[in-house]
Amino acid sequence: MGKLRLFDSTLRDGSHAIKHQLSADNIEQYCRYADNVGFHTIIVGHGNGLGASSLQVGISALGDQQMISIARKNLTITKLGVFMLPGFGTIQDDLKPALDIGADLVCIGTHCTEADVAQQHIEYVKERGKEVYGILMMSHLASPEKLLGEALKMQSYGANGVILMDSAGASTPRMVAERISKIAESLTIGVGFHAHNNLGMAVANSFHAIEAGATIIDGTVRGFGAGAGNCALEVLAGLLYKSDIRTDIDLYRILDLSEKIVSKIMPKPQEITSDSLMSGIAGVFSGFLPHVKKTAEEFDVDSRDIFLELGKRKIVAGQEDMIVDVALELANKKAKDQDLSF
Questions:
Q1: What span, in angstroms and rounded, lies between the C-alpha atoms of 285 and 20?
Q2: CA-based angle 221:247:264, to the nearest 5?
Q3: Are 259 and 305 found together in one domain?
Q4: Sign of the C-alpha dihedral, residues 171, 174, 179, 181?
Q5: Distance, CA of 236 to CA of 242 (rounded, Å)
Q6: What letter would DSSP give residue 58?
Q7: Distances (CA, A) of 277 to 21, 139, 177, 196, 273
């Protein structure tokens, strides 16, 4: 197994947890302190990536270029990373400016069965001489064999690595091990894993991914992220230390980062609520949580029913409009059932 690298998405996935309202001070203070922790990269931006700030998924307090510029000024050791979902952002309007400002590394995400959508973006980043990683999102929805086929595509496009994202926090350790080992055995580039904690398995699943051959773990400090949050990197670092698995992470430094910096950014501790648990059970994208809660209140229906129905329909990120459709159908059914009871 190659050397284990930790990708830090606290200033990207954590943005979901505060409705994309990271401030300039948040980014500056975090990057200054985290620069010496030992992360391979610190990924900065809107929770849904470059170009995603919108009414549909949330308007960020700062623009992409402003966030990247602030981070660039405060990172001298650690690589500066950005995340992008084709469809939210474009090469000319979003990716090119990010690289021009100084991003060193790019993660390009697609649905787990649609790697071909990322081809031109991966090739563009490689042409610019930067590191680029393909992200296969909602990875629990595809078989190990299907994921391998998609990962091989990303490798052929020039990706430096492929990361499986458990976007709904719906994976069990067995699922993670099967998928990671299948891909790691066949790729010549790095394989990684990004966990969500909806079932309380983020750290455990990340550790199982490492045992199965993953050389990249993408997480956040204190698990600060969408829904129930992510793999808490300081907890994983402690587990790796106890297991004699060495990384570049300075254990005391990451613990101080958690206590002194991230605790002050988070409005409340990350927790597994009944809604985030239902999201994991149903296999629904963690970022849907605030939208589902709001819509359930508006239509006076049970949010848990919305999650289960979204899961049955295999709704993915970018299909937020379906939340309202499902809630409306549930509300109509509820009204009809009440009429029949009289």
A1: 17
A2: 15
A3: no
A4: positive
A5: 10
A6: B
A7: 25, 18, 22, 11, 6
The fraction of the chain above a pLDDT of 90, given in percent, is: 90
For residue 83, what are its two tokens? 């995340």
Query: What residue spans of 158-260 are helical by DSSP H?
Result: 173-184, 202-211, 233-242, 251-256
Can you give the CATH number for the domain in which 315 is found?
A: 1.10.8.60
HSE-up of 108 (CA within 13 Å, CB side)?
33
0.85 exceeded by the pTM? yes
Query: Which residues of the chain are under the pLDDT cut of 70?
Result: 1, 340-342
- Identify any residues that bridge with 106 across adjacent strands, giving them in sequence order: 82, 132
Q: Give the number of other Cβ atoms within 10 Å of residue 117's Cβ.
A: 15
Helix H or strand E segment including 64: helix 64-74
Q: Looking at the structure, tell me whether residues 241 and 279 fall in a common domain.
A: no
Instruction: Answer yes or no: do 260 and 285 share one domain.
Output: no
Residues 48 and 163 in one domain: yes
**Residues that are catalytic:** 16
How crowded is residue 54: how many other Cβ atoms within 10 Å of its Cβ? 12
At 204, list the tokens.
């455990």
DSSP annotation string for 245-301: ---S--HHHHHHIIIIIIHHH-SS-----HHHHHHHHHT--GGGHHHHHHHHHHHT-
Q: Is 256 exposed, middle or buried (0-12, 13-18, 19+ CB in 10 A)?
A: middle
Q: What is the pLDDT of residues 118-134, one digit of tens each?
A: 999 999 999 999 999 99
Please tell me the predicted confidence (pLDDT) of residue 342: 56
Task: State the sign of the Cα–Cα–Cα–Cα dihedral 144, 151, 198, 254.
Answer: positive
Q: Which of 217, 237, 265 is the last residue of a domain?
A: 265
Computed on alpha carbons and rounded to an integer, the radius of gyration of the chain in Å comes to: 19
Are 286 and 276 spatial neighbours (Cβ–Cβ below 8 Å)?
yes
Residues 14, 34: Cα–Cα separation, whole Å: 15
216 in helix, strand or coil? strand
Provide the 3-class DSSP secondary structure of residue 17.
Answer: helix
